[in-house]
Design goal:
GNAT_dom, about 30% strand, GNAT family N-acetyltransferase, acyltransferase activity, transferring groups other than amino-acyl groups, transferase, 11 strands, 11-stranded mixed beta sheet, alpha+beta, Acyl_CoA_acyltransferase
Length: about 270
Amino acid sequence: MLTANDLNNNELIKIRMENNMREKLAYIPARHPKMDVIEIGSTLVVNSALPSDTFNTAFGGQIDGSTAKRVFDYYREKNFPMAWWVGPSSQTEYTDETLQAAGFNHDEYDVGMVANLLSLPEYSYPGQLEIKQCETDADFNDFGEVLSSIFAPYPEEAQVKRYYQQLHLVPAQDRPDLKLFVGYINGKAVSTAGLFLTDCAGIFDISTRPEERQKGYGTALFYRALEEAKSLGQQVSVLQASPDGLNIYKRFGFQQIGDFNVWSNAEALDA
């Protein structure tokens, strides 16, 4: 497990951050009876069995023309949208050109961030907010309902709901490293956070229903995931954030460390 002393080694942190994300993307699909995970070259390729670019993902690898074309064709044959996450170890001066030539379009830029959990600042939760770790089918459905709301009114909303409605097909004992949290106000699910554990603690899926934003609920769920990670002995936390969302994470000690680019096949499917 990474320790706070490892934070002085930026290259090590980048490698472990990428590994955390790669393993998280594959974690449920590799254990789910309807989903599939393969490798094309050294690139992770996930088939969620849903037409969803949230859950059909490729990750990293040494990206050459042959690999890029094979990944593109894999999803085109299924007529599935997908997202290819390219982290620091995969980005070269030729990567963008190679992916474009294969039919992908650049879709998103995110910033990798890291924090020392031993220096986690104090925080006061909103008094009326109840936070629950997901255990039952109903809990996972609530998680999916909230997370999907950020995609409304687009088709992805329905696919995100379906994904979490199927999560019960992976027994709890087979997914000990994934911990999901839902925040409730007067019984209404309003916000989510996800935690994935490797040798560092990855934070994912911080979301709040659009009508419940600007009330501190997302921050509370984010902090709850950090607290859980720290209680389990983790000292280093990582995440990927959009450039306009960095400040909230910096408040809790996160610092920028590497770039992630996301490539899409959606334009080719629409053609």
